[in-house]
Amino acid sequence: MKEVAFLQAIVYNRAVKNYGKILSAKKIAILALLTGLGLIAFLIEALIPTLPIPGAKLGISNVFSLFALVLYGLPEALLVVTARTVLGSIFAGNLSLLLYSLTAGVVSVCVSRLLLLVYPRVSILAVSVTSAVVHNLVQLLVYCGLTGTMLLMSYAPYLCLMGTGAGIVVGLAVIFTVKAVPLSVFHKIGVGNKENSETGGNKLKAKNGKLFFRGVHIRGRKELAENSPIEPLTGTWEVAIPVSQHIGAPAQPVVEVGQSVKRGQLIAQIGGKISANVHASVAGTVKDIAERKDSRGVSGVYIVITPDEKQETDYLPPLAEPTYEQIKMRVEEAGIVGMGGAGFPTHVKLSPQSPVDTLILNGAECEPYLTCDDRLMQEQRDKIVRGAHYLADALGVSQIMIGIEKNKPQAIALFEETDLQVIALKKQYPMGSEKHLIYCCTGRKVPLGKLPADAGVVVQNVATAYAVCEAVEEGKPLIERVVTVSGNGIESPKNLLCPVGAPLSALLEQCGVKEEAVIYQLVMDSVGMKETLPVNVTVTKGVISEFAIADENANLEGVDPAFADGSFFIGKSIDELSKLLNENGSLLNGVGVTVDIVRAAIFALANYEYRRPKVHRDWVKKVKSVKHNEAVKYVAGGPMTGTALTGTDAVVTKTTSGFLLLTAKETCAEEPTPCINCGKCADVCPMKLMPMQIEFYAAAKDYESAEKYGGASACISCGACGYICPARRPLAQAIKTTKAEIGRKKS
Ligand code: SF4
Ligand code: SF4
Questions:
Q1: Ligand 2 centroid distance, CA of 681 (Å)
Q2: Is the pLDDT score of 302 beyond 60?
Q3: What is the value of pTM for the model shown?
């Protein structure tokens, strides 16, 4: 049952960690209150005429000992039971009650505690029923022992039935009480993670995180944007909001073309068990709802909104004193997803299948160039901390850590002043991977094929915590995020607060693109991988660069004069071009264009100052004027795990951490050469896989062997293998394809 998750999490923490050994004055007061209430229930029960079965009792007073067990632990629960029964027997003037009730109470509390230790995920209802049944049976046993009439044990089945009924009533009473009481009340009585923050925070010095085995050390290149404060994206443009910005089913549009929408209004609702709501990031009119393909080559439905002047908002009502369940619901309503890149719906992560005791905020930001999380941590620390507490409340965990790489000293210093435990992490790629972050922060290992919750941990990005805070306190859905625009092709690298759906062209306009980069708008190569050119890409000067390079040896004999200015190619799709040019001879690199004609075209395009280094080694030698500061590649996300774009037709999504415009010097566009079996890719793989084996079998389309001998499905797509490979093998791409094929076969 979803509603018992909070209690179960508390139970688990108490059961495993024996939390709350110290009897503070606050705790004594709460235990006295529970004892008093239990005593009243005990005395009322004592006044009720004895039930026809010996030892049979309603056991309503057990509600309060169960509360003590759940909230504090075994010693406190025993204290409440003992005080209640001793005082109750004295007040009722019936000391024989003491014998029955004390023995039964103590045994049932101990059995409940044992149950929690053996099976921490047990539901509160099961604990309550077990406790009530044991309570009744022990009373009967004592009665039989005292009277010497074991025949009375024949009543045991009836007592079990009665205990079950009473246990359900008691269990439900506990559950509904917790559901109805705001979390702040629990914090005030010293239960939950605000215990420390009430005293002004731990103010602990950051602890050094562990190191993980393997990985790579990459130049951060964060200096480009790390000192640029977050600024809003300005200008007026249509937003195109994808209905699928998350892992899982796409959201279903709930607006129509022509409809007016306000900022923050729901425009597409959850489309499945794993899915997320989508909201309007600007107020205006819905211009279009249609499928389209972006520069990643990915198709999806977009809701296009033309902004109006008023920009009215339609946020959710703020939550003042939220319960754990209200927080979960708010996270779901606000369409919050993991903002570190994965896009997993956060509300699903808040209902883990295994008990968790730790929340880790991911502030590692290990990808080169990206600085959006760093800036957010420096500028919005308090909201991140409050968001972390809301997340921890929803999970029922008391331990919150934040992992930050040591190359962000300002952020580390700022969080050291909070009640979060700061873990200063060594700069090591891929430190931001969930499994490695968990190990480096806690020393716990997530078994292969398992989830972080199986190690008792939930990981959330710092930007997600920030979004949760805004959703709870301001009712603001996830409609904007900070995006780093960087790379040496960018005039002024910045961190921009952008509405979801904002076009990349608007970001580039605000940051500026270096003049010499303008002619290199479309390039298909990416770091460590070469992608297949989609057939419907329209040819521009840049696309031609994929095939060949300006070459004075191009044979222009017999070539149509239209090639002289390149106009034959421009505006045609690759598909059309391939069909036309295939008739003219051999193919180049399997992309369907003849060598000579491409050379001719490129030669013609060279008149437009087009130069493209390193496409083919022989040709490279002949290119004298290579400019290493020329921008050659757009990337959405970071250079290691991001996606190479074929152009500027891309929009900001909930998971877009950055847009990069990289130069020839920053990226690698060399053609792959045969594997030299150096083993470097395996040496650096943080998942201890055999990337070269995976690629070998993937090339033969033997995906089963790729999994069997290379372990493809355990790959976390970090790209470290492709980065280190001296032969520039397209390892990451091969592994991606293999994983997709394995997934397709399984489904
Ligand atoms: S095989 Fe996967 S996990 Fe290993 S280095 Fe390559 S991309 Fe990373
Ligand atoms: S790093 Fe590259 S060349 Fe070396 S073994 Fe791996 S795939 Fe082969």
A1: 5
A2: yes
A3: 0.68
